[in-house]
Specification:
Strand order of the largest sheet: 3-2-1-4-5-7-6
Distance between the termini: 46 Å
Bound molecules: S-adenosylmethionine
Order of helices and strands: HEHEEHEHHHHHHHEHEHE
Oligomer: single chain
Number of strands: 7
Strand content: 5-15%
Helix content: 25-40%
Largest sheet: 7 strands, mixed
Radius of gyration: 20 Å
């Protein structure tokens, strides 16, 4: 089985506008599909640094002296790039979320298709798992994640139900969770509902939105002026953060202006509208269907 089929590969590579002697960063290495394509566009002096917090990704690292794998969370991007004396860089690529490999490995607990322990950690060394979350979170915390990250209108009722059940017996496996949420599923919407519940738990377990915010904020410090930021999101919560950040340098609110009314924004948006996979790509790789690509270019200081 292939580890991961890279999404919007050409658009990402074009978006990076690769300088063959430049330094690039792929913050979500995964199966390395995007990284290998970046390497093809780099000359002998070019460099590529890649991050992945999942140890499984290391098996895909190309044997190439221009390439360095940093097996850590991308929220530490600036410190690691500093350590490798790689700042400033010419381009950063992020292909957010989980890989097909993570979904398809039954034991990782990401997928509603298999019975497994409720794990859902990308980094298996971290303490919080989906099981621990369902054991320890308060009703209010569960309601918040189902509402904010799953956008579920039944968030309150679902949280209450899980709290009641867990006082009698622990919720340990994906199929136990599926059985508990089944009564809340509308007919014909079963798959979507379950996917939203799993997605919301996964986002919280991996603290995905906070890591994304921290990484985005550091991109303007590590990119050189004219450098490109290319980000692919797979749901509206991520995309909203990326869109606002590229537009205004902030995640919410208005663009900041100086005393003369000039806007102070770190990036210029290269994509006015987001780029999405075409029908041919979606046909070939159904998992690409929700991809939303946005590109920004670092402004002069
Ligand atoms: C969608 S896959 C990337 C696939 C890759 N572009 C390819 O072509 O194979 C996302 C990868 O990023 C990793 N990842 C997600 N969030 C991360 C984070 N905060 N820090 C480091 N790695 C992360 C996941 O472990 C996963 O392997």
């Amino acid at each position: 089985m292939i580890y991961h089929d890279p999404v919007l590969l050409n658009a990402c590579i074009e978006g990076l506008r690769i300088n063959p002697s430049g330094t690039y960063v792929d913050v979500t290495f995964g199966g390395g599909g995007h990284s290998r394509e970046i390497l093809k566009h780099l000359g002998p002096d070019g460099k590529l640094f890649a991050f992945d917090q999942d140890n499984d990704a290391a098996a895909n690292a190309p044997d190439d002296e221009r390439f360095t794998l940093i097996p850590h969370n991308f929220k530490f991007i600036k410190n690691y790039l500093k350590l490798y004396r790689a700042i400033p860089v010419d381009g950063i690529l992020a292909d957010l979320g989980v890989s097909s490999h993570q979904f398809d490995e039954a034991g990782r607990g990401f997928s509603i298709r298999f019975d497994a322990n409720l794990d859902m950690r990308m980094n298996v060394l971290q303490g919080m798992t989906a099981q621990k979350l369902l054991e320890t979170y308060s009703e209010e915390e569960l309601r918040r994640i189902f509402k904010e990250y799953g956008e579920l209108s039944e968030a309150g009722k679902l949280a209450k139900h899980l709290i009641n059940v867990r006082s009698d017996r622990p919720i340990k496996t994906t199929q136990q969770l599926m059985d508990l949420i089944r009564p809340f599923m509308r007919r014909g919407q079963e798959h979507t509902f379950a996917a939203q519940v799993f997605q919301s738990i996964r986002i919280e377990v991996n603290d995905e939105l906070e890591s994304l915010k921290q990484m985005l904020l550091q991109t303007s410090e590590v990119l050189r002026p004219g450098g490109r930021l290319v980000v692919m999101s797979y749901h509206s919560l991520e995309d909203r953060l990326v869109k606002n950040f590229i537009r205004s340098g902030k995640f919410e609110g208005e663009v900041e202006k100086d005393l003369f009314g000039h806007s102070k924004v770190p990036f210029k948006a290269i994509t006015r509208k987001p780029v999405r996979p075409d029908a041919e790509e979606i046909n070939r790789n159904n998992r690409s269907r929700s991809a939303i690509l946005r590109i920004g270019e670092k402004n002069e200081e």
